[in-house]
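Please discuss these two lines.
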Amino acid sequence: MKHVIIILVTIIAFASCKSTYSNGDSDSNEISNDTIKIKNDSLEYEIMIIEPGFNNWLATQPPRGYYGQSFLESRNQQFVQQYNYRVQNPQQFDPLLYQQEINYRMGVDYGYEVNYMLYNYFIYFQRQYKQNFIGGRRRN
């Protein structure tokens, strides 16, 4: 049985819930669409991130290998628990930000790459949408 982790954050949903300010200047560094798909064939897990600007932001973060896998797994467990709590409580948290639960189980080895991408997505998500998860990095 193939286990799949999918984080699918649709651009349409976020574009419809976030207003933008335009001063008329064109910013050529801004990305309108980023899609990253990481598939761990040997373990049969996958993570898909569709988020404007994530790929460029990721390039500015600590490289692969900077964090140990156990650190990433520990943080991801905390973040997933908080994220899923917010999905289950749409009256308290924006249902346009928290649309679908993440199936991330404790004790399952998802591999380094999946954990690295998931961790960095949670950090990006917190900064981009001004959300605070316990254990997340402080905003600059």
Remarks:
- Residues 1-32 have pLDDT under 50 and may be disordered.
